[in-house]
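so ive been stuck on this for like two days lol. basically i have the seq below and the ligand is zinc ion, smiles is in there too. i just want the complex predicted, nothing fancy, no docking runs or whatever. if the output looks off dont worry ill sanity check it later, just need somthing to start from for the group meeting slides
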Amino acid sequence: MSQLYDVDQFVPAPSVELICAVCQNVLLDPVECDCRHVFCRSCISKWLAEGPDSSCPKCRSRVSVISLRTVVPLLQNLLNELQLRCANAGCDWQKSLEQYDAHVKVCAFRRLPCPHKGCFQTLPSDSLGAHKEACEHRVIKCSDWCGLDFTLQQRSSHNCRTAVLTLLNGMQSCLNNK
Ligand SMILES: [Zn+2]
Ligand SMILES: [Zn+2]
Ligand SMILES: [Zn+2]
Ligand SMILES: [Zn+2]
Ligand SMILES: [Zn+2]
């Protein structure tokens, strides 16, 4: 899993003891090796699994996965109390790391993907509703005559007769290919 936050978001910048030497980011779910060096759980596990030898990334002393320990509560508390800004543009939220996860889930400035097929835009959640309505990839049903589906983009060029003929032609070639 990638980090949910970036080291630049922290105000003030976190002290080096709270930075993981593997990912250079603020420790996430930290664990301690026998040599007392601390890394993110996922970073050190990956390092030990993929590296040529099982050694600490910092001091090169031997480390085994089973010897990894959860850090003292004090360190976790220090991390939880770090202040950081929300990563979403336009949002002025700034609180502790402990509250960050809960905030990003509900942040009004978080970007969500448009659900319409063919549209690859992401939008701040508070303007997604308006976009979904106006999105040219929104599918609508013709209320004139044919009742066929088309996207908002195709509305001005939609012609019931042509649409039905195209559909029939498609069916025809489908049957011919059988
Ligand atoms: Zn890390
Ligand atoms: Zn070490
Ligand atoms: Zn936010
Ligand atoms: Zn869209
Ligand atoms: Zn029509």
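The first helix runs from residue 41 to 50. The mean pLDDT is 92.
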